[in-house]
From TrEMBL:
Signal peptide: none annotated. This is SHS2 domain-containing protein. InterPro entries: ATPase_NBD (IPR043129), FtsA/MreB (IPR050696), PilM (IPR005883), SHS2_FtsA (IPR003494). Pfam families: PilM_2. One of its GO terms (biological process) is cell division. It comes from the Bacteria. Transmembrane segments: none annotated. CDD domains: ASKHA_NBD_PilM. Residues 11-178 form the SHS2 domain. The lineage of its organism: Bacteria, Pseudomonadati, Pseudomonadota, Gammaproteobacteria, Alteromonadales.
Length: 356
């Protein structure tokens, strides 16, 4: 059984993050889509640590709560593992090979391609079409992850009443969402020949993703994220991190030590700039059309402003709900759009075949 294609396509994407579950349900409307339901449910601290689930039963209960809030009858769902848990390699193969032949070749060369025992792995692949510099060859991207990384998430979702039809990788879902909304929201950046850098700043990590020409060109995962700042401000755990986040969103920082904020922003930029350096060390195109900020960090003005001060590229806080209007009863989540980018990409996966 492959990593991604587990059966019939659903229309519901669920992003299980370290701090919250985000769900998006979409329906097809002609050549586009419509969001019909969204829901966000906070998770207990340390329920997911280093992308591993520490308590499947508690996570399943949170998923049930999210499902109730969503009010959906859909049970087919698309989930994802972290790109930190997956390995992707791009290969050149003969254009004459079809999906079956590509799969056979991957199986034959699995030991060289995948640094895990093949019995412990789920994998899938996608042909990206003819190779631009190697006549008669096609580019094939192979993505693999340990079976346990998939199975724990599948178990939690199934115990919540879902049928997991597809398991994706988070950076591929982010790519898919960006490819769908950027031509509408920022066509000048999307049409630029230079790649886009996506900064996924969550409570637990900073993931740097470079995308271009419909593919993930680079990804780097670094633990840390917003939690470091929250811990510095929570008065030894007495203040809820949600309260701190809301205060920072509103720009209410007058009573916060400037040194704490400056240290956090300095460390964050050091992580980001290091990711840029590593990407550029092997890239032919070393500049970017722009920087897209997503997830919780994209909702904090001080982070957006600080990154804008550091670079000459346009810096966009990407909110997909600016393209997909939310039903009126979900308007309170309108400004939370940057946190739903991955969930939207997973929902879109329902209508996008992996093999081209």
């Amino acid at each position: 059984m492959g990593l991604f294609g587990l059966g019939k396509k659903p229309g519901l994407g669920i992003d299980i993050g370290t701090d919250a579950i985000k769900a998006v349900e979409i329906v097809s409307q002609g050549d586009t889509y419509e969001i019909v339901r969204v829901a966000e449910t906070q998770l207990a601290k340390n329920l997911i640590t280093d992308d591993e689930i520490t308590d499947i039963e508690k996570l399943s209960k949170a998923l049930k709560q999210n499902k109730k809030s969503l009010g959906t009858r859909a049970i087919d769902v698309v989930g994802a593992v972290s790109g930190n848990q997956a390995i992707s390699k791009q290969l050149a193969m003969s254009l004459d090979l079809d999906d079956e032949a590509i799969a056979e070749k991957i199986e034959t060369e699995a030991e060289a391609l995948i640094p895990f025992p093949i019995a412990e792995v789920r994998y899938d692949f996608e042909s990206l079409g003819e190779h631009p510099t190697m006549p008669g060859q096609q580019r094939v991207i192979v993505t693999a992850t340990r079976t346990v990384s998939v199975d724990t998430r599948v178990q939690a979702l199934e115990e919540a009443g879902y049928k997991v039809r597809i398991m994706d990788v988070d950076n591929q879902a982010i790519l898919r969402a960006c490819d769908h909304v950027m031509p509408h929201l920022h066509p000048d950046l999307y049409d630029n020949k230079l790649p886009l850098m996506v900064l996924d700043i969550s409570s637990a990590a900073v993931q740097t993703i470079v995308i271009g020409h419909g593919e993930v060109m680079f990804t780097r995962y670094q633990s840390g994220g917003l939690t470091q700042l929250f811990k510095a401000l929570d008065n030894d755990g007495e203040v809820d991190h949600g309260q701190i986040f809301a205060k920072l969103r509103a720009g209410e920082t007058d009573d916060i030590s400037p040194i704490i904020l400056q240290d956090f922003l300095g460390n964050l930029w050091a992580q980001i700039s290091r990711g840029m350096q590593i990407y550029r060390s092997n890239a032919t195109k070393k500049d970017f059309a722009g920087i897209l900020l997503i997830n919780s960090g994209a909702m904090l003005p001080m982070i957006v402003d600080n990154i804008r001060e550091q670079v000459e590229y346009p810096v966009i806080s990407l909110n997909p709900f600016e393209h997909f209007p939310l039903p009126s009863k979900y308007q309170h989540l309108q400004s939370h759009g940057p946190r739903f980018v991955e969930a939207l990409g997973l929902a879109l996966r329902s209508f996008t075949p992996w093999h081209t």
